Amino acid sequence: MPPAARTSVLSAVSDESPRRTEDSPDTLRARVLLVDDVPANLLALEGILEPLGQHVVSVRSGDEALKALLLDEYACVLMDVQMPGLDGLETARLVRTRERTRHLPILFITALSRETAYVTRGYEYGAVDYLLKPVDPDILRAKVSVFVELYLRGEKLRQQALELAERRRVEEELQRAAELEQQLLGIVGHDIRTPLAAILTTANVQLTREALPESQRKAFERVARGGERIHRIVDQLLDFTRARVGGGIPVVPGAGDLNELCRRLVDELRAARPERSIQCDFAHDSLPGVWDLDRLAQVVANLLDNALKYSPHDTPVRLRTYEQGADCVFLEVQNAGAPIPAHVLPTLFQPFRRGDGPGQRESLGLGLYIARSIVEAHGGTLRVESTPESGTVFSLCLPRQALADTRAHSACAGVAAPMTA
């Protein structure tokens, strides 16, 4: 047990914190106030209380005691009854008049032969107990230790209550901020779609006119491209809102062929980017299953688009599909080039994370987050591996039939797909 800290009898204020010990900042320690006009008595009391390991503050008058109680909190007070000037009884009465110290335990120390008459008055003034001089050390320590323990328990409960209140306040603020964020995204997404549809319709109608001057045609083409880009951004924002607020992106599974979907998407990309090579490797001509093919088209298109963006123009992007057992199908998209930095990998699928490649200022950084959300809505998994030797490989595992309840056990859970060499 550490020795009790001692404050000079000439000072009513402790220089130490009453809350924590120096050796262990997480250990609470209480203050005990000693009031006696005789220095020898104070030294004796300090010696008796030293084994308790609490912080003892000694003062030599009622005035100094009141000053100490104004500045600090105490577990209890040991007060001599008969003192010159402001005696112990009057000091106790003044202590009880203050709201902060109204319930502070006061133990009077009295000499029975001369001060028995003070005992009754002492209880009237708020004393919780009294001790006879000469004081029995064991009894004194036992009584003080009870009040110290009660004080420390109260302090712990008070600290826990403050921490709980602060935690609740922070959680409520975060919840309000999240709700406002999602509501704002949803409102903005829906409110933008109406005028955007009018803009795109106007631009497309004008582009169908054969007599349209070339300068106006180029202008309407720019309007159409910009409108389509805004449309994609709005769709991403709405999907993000659904994923964060609605408990996940909704999927409507139906029978379909994953390979046929991949062929269609690859043909579209080849037509849009004829300078790039996209190679397909299908283990089977068809890969049937029950999925939301429109949503999976978002996933595959995003993976292929990213692979084209982040790979050298003279290298191919490879798409591979195969099955593993009767219940799992896999799709991999691989590209060459510099690997994804190690510090980026842990946050790659988080929302609003953008890459460092060209044109990424135009991206919201939601593509991979939405892709993983769609895959998880099917009960599948989406992983990435990136090394200098193999390049970057995104591996998608899907149960043959999308799960109606994603909390159910998925065939893809714990399955590690072999990465493309």
From TrEMBL:
Pfam families: HATPase_c, HisKA, Response_reg. Residues 1-25 are annotated as: Disordered. The keyword Transferase applies. Residues 187-402 form the Histidine kinase domain. It is an enzyme of class 2 (transferase). It catalyses: ATP + protein L-histidine = ADP + protein N-phospho-L-histidine. Residues 31-148 form the Response regulatory domain. Residues 16-25 have a biased composition (Basic and acidic residues). The modification 4-aspartylphosphate is found at residue 80. Transmembrane segments: none annotated. Keywords: Kinase, Phosphoprotein, Transferase. InterPro entries: CheY-like_superfamily, HATPase_C_sf, HATPase_dom, His_kinase_dom, HisK_dim/P_dom, HisK_dim/P_sf, Sig_transdc_His_kin-like_C, Sig_transdc_resp-reg_receiver. Its EC number is 2.7.13.3. One of its GO terms (molecular function) is phosphorelay sensor kinase activity. This is histidine kinase. It comes from Corallococcus carmarthensis.
